[in-house]
Amino acid sequence: MTKYDPRLGISGQVLRQAAEAGRAALVAYLPVGFPSVPGSLAAMRAVIEGTEGVGADLVEIGMPYSDPMMDGLAIQHATTRALERGVRTRDVFTASETVAAAGATPMVMIYWNLVERYGVTAFARDLAAAGGAGLITPDLTPDEAGEWLAASDAYGLDRVFLIAPSSTDERIRETLAACRGWVYATSVMGVTGVRAETSAAAPVIVQRARAADPSLPVGVGLGVSNGDQAAEVGSYADAVIVGSALVNCLITADDAGSDDLTGLRAKAADLAAGVRRSRR
Q1: pTM of the full structure
Q2: Is the pLDDT of residue 189 over 60?
Q3: Active-site choice (57, 60, 91, 126)
Q4: Active site residue 174
Q5: Residue-wise pLDDT tens digits, 41-65
Q6: % helix, strand, coil for the chain, step of 5
Q7: Of the residues 49, 71, 91, 238, which is catalytic?
Q8: What is the CATH T-level fold of the domain 11-276, as seen in this structure?
Q9: For residue 185, is pLDDT > 80?
């Protein structure tokens, strides 16, 4: 049995266990509230289950925001509809409970203004109570995160910050030092979205992160759209993060006026099979 490591927190431990099994972990991003709050909860259960009970290890629960910084067209489309249909910040706690009950680890991806508006300490308290592992904060840097560092310490939550190909070595070291769980490496400059090929910058940013701190797992996001790409990225990263490819499945069903999750389950199963081919 893997010994608990406070540096890895809850979510990093999941990535370590996957690595010990000789593969990368699959992190599935889905926004709460699309196509509806209940529909999004059903979608999260579906990506965990896949088609034969093999799916995502972690679910990155996206909180829709009116002015996103790094979301691509598919995710912007879905989150705009979610906001129009009445999603609220507190719905991320229900989503966290749902993911945890389904057997995966919930992480919340949220823009910092929403946490400040809710109250940083109150948000940490309620997320911990809902079984959430922690936050991914795309627009919060460690040097501006004092209140979050204190609140996450108080409630035992993971904190995942982002690094990019443009990050200096010093910034990478500072970011990794502030993380608990793992670090999110964006493999391309720009917004999210599926791509025909994975980024050549991805292995480089992973290598730079490992040089700065070999003990912290590295997840790679932006661009993965199928199992073959997941296997490729998983051969050098500890976690493969997929969002737009999954969200597109929901958009297709919603545009057709359907709540059928067959396509979403099949996509999750393909990605899960991919990371399981990524022998480490």
Answers
A1: 0.93
A2: no
A3: 60
A4: no
A5: 999 999 999 988 899 999 999 999 9
A6: 50, 15, 40
A7: 71
A8: TIM Barrel (3.20.20)
A9: yes
